[in-house]
Amino acid sequence: MAPKFVVFGGNGFLGKRICQNAVTAGYQVVSVSRSGKVPHSTELNDKQWIQEVQWTAADIFKPDSYHALLKDAANVVHSLGILLENENYKKTLSKSPTTGSKSSLFSLGAGPNPLRKSSPYFTYEMMNKQSAIILANTFKQEIIKKGKKEQAKINERSFTYISADKGFPMIPSGYINSKREAEIEIERMHEYFRPIIMRPGFMFDEHRNAIGPRSFIHSALELLYCGNKFLLQNKLQFMNDLIRPTVSTQQVSHSILTKVEDSNFKGIVTLEEILKT
């Protein structure tokens, strides 16, 4: 039987591409989200791999709702998180400026809002940090239950956390701080699985050409990055730290699979490394 690959947030903007790549690589793929809904797509290629994924609903803050899925999992991915603690930003930015229709263009890996507006969980501390730690600990406990012989097979298991390259201008420091704090806690569990920390920048999807906020932001960031590279020749370090390259969900998901399949790899994967894969 093919190894089991469990993606939390698998129906989100990045999560679905991780699922797609895992299916293509021959894994038994399970997507876990609060709704359990299958992502909508009109692309024929998407419809083919979507049928191969087990789409499941669970609450990441309630391990009893999903611990059984981790029992025989070889690889687990945490692809959840929020950019702002005020949920209204997604409502505003999820509308196309030309049609007013809703889209999921600005969800940074989490897809549709996983929690209600009034939920106490919609904070950096809970969504970006504690949800990942809870999931990693639950995976760890399932490994411990298997006994020392199975525990020793560390290289055969991985836990991937979708972190972030850097903070964004005008975004509270709590965003990147919560990511870094989660990284530290996950890396401390290296005796049970290989921690893989992905640090992508602003993400776009290569197969989505819809006009909307994410498309506009992507174009603006690319223009700034090219200007810094060719006009300023990357000579000003503060500009290099501020203006970062964008990366596609396909590049990030491909990089994840590459690191997962490298049984000797564990640790941080920088934006620059992701862009090279």
TrEMBL record:
Annotated ranges, domain NAD-dependent epimerase/dehydratase: 6-78
InterPro entries: ComplexI_NDUFA9_subunit, Epimerase_deHydtase, NAD(P)-bd_dom_sf
Pfam families: Epimerase
Protein name, entry field: NAD-dependent epimerase/dehydratase domain-containing protein
Phylogenetic placement of the source organism: Eukaryota, Fungi, Dikarya, Ascomycota, Saccharomycotina
